[in-house]
Amino acid sequence: MNTWMRHLLALLLGCLLSLSAHAALDAKVIRQLVDDDSDQKLAAIAALVQVGTPEAARVLQALSDDALYATDQRVWLKADDKVYDATTGAEINPAPDDVDTVSINNRVRGALDSALSGFKLTAADPAARLAAAQSLQGDVSASMIPALTAALKQETDSKVKPVLEQLLAQANLKNPDVKARLAAVEDLSHSNSPNARGLLLTRIDPANEPDAKVRAAAQSSIAAIDSRLAWISALGSVFSGLSLGSILLLAALGLAITYGVMGVINMAHGELLMVGAYSAYVVQGVFHAHFPGAQDWYLVAAVPVAFCAAAAVGMIMERTVIRWLYGRPLETLLATWGISLVLIQAARALFGAQNVEVSNPSWMSGGLEILPSLTLPWNRVVIIGFALSVLVLMWAIMQKTRLGLFVRAVTQNRAMAGCVGVPTRRIDTLAFGLGAGIAGLGGLALSQIANVGPDMGQGYIVDSFLVVVLGGVGQLAGAVWAALGLGIVTKLLEGWAGAVIAKIIVLAIIIVFIQRRPQGLFAVKGRVVD
Amino acid sequence: MNRRTALKLVTVCTLAAASGLSGGAFAADTIKVGILHSLSGTMAISESALEQTALMTIAEINAQGGVMGKQLEPVVVDPASNWPLFAEKARQLLSKDKVAVVFGCWTSVSRKSVLPVFRELNGLLFYPVQYEGEELEKNVFYTGAAPNQQAIPAVDYLLSKDGGEAKRFVLLGTDYVYPRTTNKILRAYLHTKGIQDADIMEEYTPFGYSDYQTIIAKIKDFSSQGKKTAVVSTINGDSNVPFYKELGNAGLKATDVPVVAFSVGEEELRGVDTKPLVGELAAWNYFMSVKNPENTKFTKMYRDWAKKQKLPNADTAVTNDPMEATYVGIHMWKQAVEKAHSTDVDKVIAAMGGQTFKAPSGFTLEMDPKNHHLHKPVMIGEVKANGQFNVVWKTKEPVKAQPWSPFIAGNDKKKDEPEAN
């Protein structure tokens, strides 16, 4: 057959297909889809899968999107802002105004997802095929073997292929042929999916699996998966520990300057975090009102705003109250505690007592799926990166700039620094402003994972002091180690003992540690020792 | 106006002014009504809406002529999610403000803190939230659900075909009396359904907790043991926002591991991106999406109220189950006062039994003549992409409450009505 003949044949086949696509669906099946009984709905979905036309797929997609509507007379659907009759596929103009959505429950939704994924296994876009294959994980039946084999034959993408192979193996687990089951069980030993593990577990039960060889193979496949999953879950714990650590670090970094370096027991530190978090809320509101198109990027714009707002509050605090109390820690403690109450009430007056809604931008939603059993949520990943960059920025300011040099000089020997011409008073204000601004950045990050409300600072003040004291007052590096250490220890304990007990154990460990080593992880240098 | 009436008027005015000055209890033409809900702190997310609902209902009753011709005067206090402060504020409402009735509390710990005060001063409390049962007080009317009106039917649904025929359960809650007791009841109930302890995982988090990564990883792990797993969440307050955010981001879908919540309604889901949460469940006695004339009126009234009061996010105002229970409670109290011709606590308590009210849930609710609980319908809803719930299952009739759960040992001997104190 020469080339043009082949082309012609393809064209003819295409015409035939598109003709059949416009054929009406069975009205009885469509009506069944609307039935209140889930069993009826499931039967109708299976029937539509059998039909297999794009028309049928569109009806199923509409059902899944809550875009299928029904009255006693007719069933119609919405797709691409147009309204079609579900049975004939013809466009309806004007759209019916009586809107009664056909609702589905989880059981129907699950079946529907599998059905739609089945349709998408042969989609043109490899990403869509991958997503479809992944969503079928752990949810395949023996009836899908022919479809999966066909899809696998066509598949050229190197990412989709192994997923399809795994799926086929999963489907083959229920194959009546013993050889096929044995092969499937052995194939699945390469899987990292908890779903595959779950399916294998059904094969070691003599009630489900008559063949002893298959049972033994399933046993060893499970052992293989388990040893890998153990690693993955350890990785997961380390990641959540790092992520909690980075949050603790962000909460404590500002305090590492105001308390650690300057020796001010700043009880209003939590409220400086709150200022940063509310800045995110305000910027979000401004974007919502004025730049709705760029809504996703409000968080980036909020970074300088949060820093400046918190720094401004900090500098005002320093100029008006703290400046008169240097070297009198108890009085600063009381005065800053008073300031914290003032700030809480101010937030209440400005924004109301209730929590406000700060949303994750879409690029921070969802997660990075490294393995089927390990998803790293984007917001956590971004916050770890953010914490690192704030840390680098702070280190650079303290070590590489004139301001940093002056702050260190004033900290070590105020009188001498004054003698050589360092404006000690102004340096105090700027240093306090820097610490406050960094607290603001911490608050901005916190707004992405926790609640934003007037009282939010109270929840972080204890953790922040723990980090700074544990790390060794006046030591940036100490704060970093303490934050990460606390994060990882807390997460490991939580995995083992639960959140409530973990908190108690962590506090007990800290008490014992501070008793043994009052100077913290690293030795003290700074104004406090003088 | 003749001279005598004019004189009377002047006397009444003077008296009213004098009583106002002395701060005393005597007010000629209003009935004081206390509202005891946290407007700040971790519970404000849930309770603020109840305060607004109470104020709205009082305004509605006042517009219709008040109770026995007298206007209701709301006295609002803020116990700030601080349990001991609840007791203090309750005492203030009863002994200083001399309110006729108090509508309030959300968490069981707050209710437990105010109980001694209501008992001692013989006050009257309407409690609008689902709770763990194990309580029957003469001074309290429970307009929320008891476990058999929410928790047990929800688990039944999860065990059913449509609910996914779950074989393993994660009982996840905030660490206090309601989740602990509810989970104790549920564990005993699951045992009767043949589910072993090995297939039940119980986890608690402190109030205000916001780091759910480890717990979600644990749930994923627990669910990978080859049996269909479901999560029962009794997480309370603003912890729910980080929990659902994390759940969505971690990619744990409702079709794999459904989560049924007892304390999450339309209000708590505001501010959460609900698209990844489609299909997650909640069990309540009312959902905003229920269609009937009473609910249309109720939801419209609340939306208008939110706009008029310029509440934050008034354009997205939603109603939920405890708000409905608050609304029903205030109306029933009004009916009882009118039946008793008095606001006297003992007379109102006597008149409350058997009161009925056509509620926004679409059912006519009845206050049980004996056990101080409402007969309520039970509904299971699934989260939709727009943050509303789609009712996937409901009872045909209102269910009578069992405050003493039969799944707790020794409860079979307890009497089904409050004893006089």
UniProtKB/TrEMBL annotation, chain B:
Key words, A-Z: Signal
Cited CDD domains: PBP1_FmdD-like
InterPro entries cross-referenced by the UniProt entry: ABC_urea-bd_UrtA, Peripla_BP_I
Domain of life where this protein originates: Bacteria
Coiled-coil regions, chain positions: none
Extent of the signal sequence: 1-27
Segments crossing the lipid bilayer: none
Protein name: Urea ABC transporter substrate-binding protein
Organism annotation: Silvimonas iriomotensis
